[in-house]
Specification:
Layout (H helix, E strand, L loop, with lengths): L1 E5 L2 E5 L4 E6 L2 E7 L4 E7 L8 E6 L3 E6 L5 E6 L4 E7 L8 E6 L9 E2 L10 H39 L9 E6 L8 E6 L5 E8 L9 E4 L7 E5 L11 E7 L1
């Protein structure tokens, strides 16, 4: 599901529980839930003059998030799944309202907001707990990316000082296997020459197979081959993994 926000900005909601905002082709932010978003729209729900992303969920939750950073500013819960979140001048008073409609076809009391600043049902401690978790994940990801760049820069300095360079033809091979004794998938990452692997970072942005968005492996002894044990999953899920491999 997509919703237009402003020029070059749009919000999106996916069946895998992901919602977020894009500016052109750049993703501004995203959050992922175990529930499924059923509807999404843009509306100034708290009367601050700025639009928010309003999302209806299959568990009866309606929430609004800041377009700038995804921070939650409003949340309410209902007994039935939300079928649609729509905006219109329902009362013909010249003011738009946002309403959440249940699958039964009605809009129960409490799902209508006129953007006049009354949308304050999200408690401060609830915002704090959720945003702390989101910010912690963002900081962890930034730290890992920064650490990887530091390793890469250190490797460049080392190779320049010793006139040793990683061959431009170096290729990375990745193979998967399973065994009867282990239910999880085992990945083998290897180079096709004498280059050794110092670190592997695997990013998973959508499937949620890691605790965060990435998995970092540092072999105790750098070698041309490294083994990665993926976490055991209790359900079948399709995942696209992005690999970054530091070799010297």
């Amino acid at each position: 599901d997509l919703t237009s926000i402003q020029r070059h900005l749009f919000g999106y909601a996916l069946d895998n529980g992901t919602v977020g905002v894009y500016k052109n082709s750049h993703r501004v932010w995203r959050v992922k839930s175990k529930n499924i978003p059923t509807s999404i729209t843009a509306f100034d729900i708290n009367g601050d003059g700025e639009l928010e992303i309003v999302i209806g969920w299959n568990n009866g939750k309606v929430e609004a998030r800041s377009i700038a950073n995804g921070a939650a500013v409003y949340r309410d819960h209902f007994a039935s799944p939300i079928a649609a979140v729509l905006t219109s001048d329902y009362r013909l008073r010249g003011n738009a309202e946002v309403r959440g409609y249940l699958f039964e076809g009605n809009a129960p009391d409490g799902t209508s907001k006129d953007g006049g600043g009354a949308a304050t049902s999200l408690l401060a401690d609830e915002i704090s707990a959720e945003e702390k978790e989101v910010q912690a994940l963002i900081k962890t990801k930034a730290g890992l990316v920064g650490q990887l760049k530091a390793y890469e820069n250190a490797g460049l300095k080392t190779t320049k000082g010793t006139n040793v360079r990683v061959a431009t033809t170096t290729k990375i091979a990745i193979s998967a296997s399973t065994t009867i004794s282990h239910e999880n998938v085992e990945l083998t990452v290897s180079t096709e020459n004498e280059s050794v692997i110092k670190m592997i970072v695997i990013f998973d942005y959508d499937a949620g197979i890691f605790d965060g968005e990435s998995l970092v492996i540092r072999p105790a002894t750098p070698a041309p081959k490294a083994t990665v044990q993926l976490p055991t999953l209790k359900k079948n899920v399709a995942a696209t993994l992005h690999f970054r491999v530091l070799v010297t």
